[in-house]
């Protein structure tokens, strides 16, 4: 039951996050914000989350996973409601575009500070509940929840966001609120009371095993957030769609990307039973090919195919990377290392939107070719990563308990 309600909570969190990322670029133009302002809003909030994630990881070790998850997911439920109210006030003439920007930025920063512990706590819960042999499948569950939430966010943008953004965000807040109530009722604590947690806070970490996976996180999330920022803008500026049409089509594209990711993580990863090392390598190379296709795509149909293949590549890469990171951390530092990983994710989510907006000003295809370069670096790192214990593992090799 803990795994099920955690999955629902993570889906709701991803829905709230994806809805904002997909709808905000075009909505920002409607409000009167520049593309750089919108990118800065998303980047600054990601930077705030990056700063607090390691602190939340330590809180997880000392006070448990459950309170951290409940605080973070409550913030995820309240932000869309507050954002919808502010946009409605702007449309009624009660708030200027600049005043709206300041208010949304403040609200987004508060949400980031409160929700910085969601992913460290969720990753720690799944590590608590899975053996080393099942770790990649467990991390795939977290990725599948993120993907499903993004699919729902894309569907919402496609069906409603282009016509009525306020109603869309109210719906997101309601869904996240229901998910929070279920978590408060049914979520069990998986790591209560650790008397030696204070000593673990200062114990050295095996950085030699961790840094390649952290670098993959940084580059991969930079690519992902960069593309989310510019997809609607590319459709508008390069393919001639209106603001509403670009929101709807971008939502559909991100939905297809995440559908592929969910299918791969939820079904294929468990059936393949590849080691984390080979999941990482296969996913990186597939994502590289997909990004090359998106850069060369002559029309939205080819772009959609490239984005779907990118989702499949990330569906292999992300659980492999998280499992390798978790196994390299050891059993007593799961939340701590997860917090560091979320900090690196935040850095990627900070760099992606603002760099995507800046590159788009140069050329609508510049963000896509930059993504190809970044994924080339990911592929090179993935090919050099060694399995825990120092020996590269065959695709079907299983990580034993000694890897812990």
UniProtKB/TrEMBL annotation:
InterPro entries with a match to the protein in the record: MFS (IPR011701), MFS_dom (IPR020846), MFS_trans_sf (IPR036259)
GO molecular function, one term: transmembrane transporter activity
Pfam families per UniProt: MFS_1
Coiled-coil portions: none
Membrane spanning stretches: 38-56, 68-87, 139-160, 166-188, 209-227, 247-269, 278-296, 302-325, 337-359, 365-383
Signal sequence bounds: none
UniProt xrefs under SUPFAM superfamilies: MFS general substrate transporter
UniProt domain Major facilitator superfamily (MFS) profile: residue ranges: 2-390
Record keywords: Membrane, Transmembrane, Transmembrane helix
Top-rank taxon, per record: Bacteria
PANTHER family: MEMBRANE PROTEIN, TRANSPORT PROTEIN
Protein name, per record: MFS transporter
């Amino acid at each position: 039951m803990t795994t099920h309600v955690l999955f629902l909570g993570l889906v709701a969190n991803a829905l709230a996050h994806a809805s904002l990322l997909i709808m905000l670029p075009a909505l920002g133009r409607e409000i009167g914000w520049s593309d750089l302002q919108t990118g800065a809003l998303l980047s600054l909030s990601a930077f705030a989350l990056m700063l607090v994630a390691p602190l939340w990881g330590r809180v997880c070790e000392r006070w448990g996973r459950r309170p951290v998850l409940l605080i973070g997911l409550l913030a995820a439920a309240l932000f869309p409601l507050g954002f919808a109210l502010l946009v409605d006030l702007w449309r009624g003439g009660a708030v200027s575009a600049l005043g709206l920007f300041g208010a949304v930025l403040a609200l987004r920063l508060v949400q980031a500070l409160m929700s910085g512990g969601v992913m460290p706590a969720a990753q720690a819960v799944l590590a608590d509940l899975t053996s080393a042999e099942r770790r990649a499948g467990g991390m795939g569950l977290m990725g599948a929840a993120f993907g499903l939430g993004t699919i729902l966010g894309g569907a919402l943008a496609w069906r409603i966001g282009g016509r009525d953004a306020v109603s869309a965000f109210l719906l997101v807040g309601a869904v996240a609120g229901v998910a929070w109530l279920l978590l408060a009722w049914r979520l069990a604590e998986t790591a209560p009371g650790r008397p030696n947690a204070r000593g673990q806070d200062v114990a050295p970490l095996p950085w030699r095993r961790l840094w390649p996976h952290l670098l993959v996180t940084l580059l991969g999330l930079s690519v992902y957030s960069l593309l989310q920022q510019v997809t609607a803008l590319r459709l508008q500026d390069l393919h001639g769609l209106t603001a509403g049409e670009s929101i709807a089509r971008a939502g559909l594209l991100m939905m297809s990307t995440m559908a592929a990711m969910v299918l791969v993580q939820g079904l294929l990863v468990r059936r393949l039973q590849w080691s984390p090392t080979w999941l990482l390598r296969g996913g990186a190379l597939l994502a590289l090919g997909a990004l090359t296709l998106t850069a060369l795509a002559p029309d939205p149909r080819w772009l959609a195919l490239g984005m779907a293949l990118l989702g499949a590549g990330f569906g292999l890469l992300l659980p492999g990377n998280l499992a390798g990171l978790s196994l390299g951390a050891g059993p007593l530092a799961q939340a701590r290392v997860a917090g560091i990983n979320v900090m690196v994710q935040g850095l990627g989510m900070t760099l992606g939107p603002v760099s995507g907006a800046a590159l788009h000003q140069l050329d609508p295809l510049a963000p896509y070719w930059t993504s190809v370069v970044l994924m080339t670096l990911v592929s090179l790192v993935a090919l050099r990563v060694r399995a825990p214990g120092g020996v590269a593992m065959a695709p079907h090799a299983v990580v034993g308990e000694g890897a812990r």
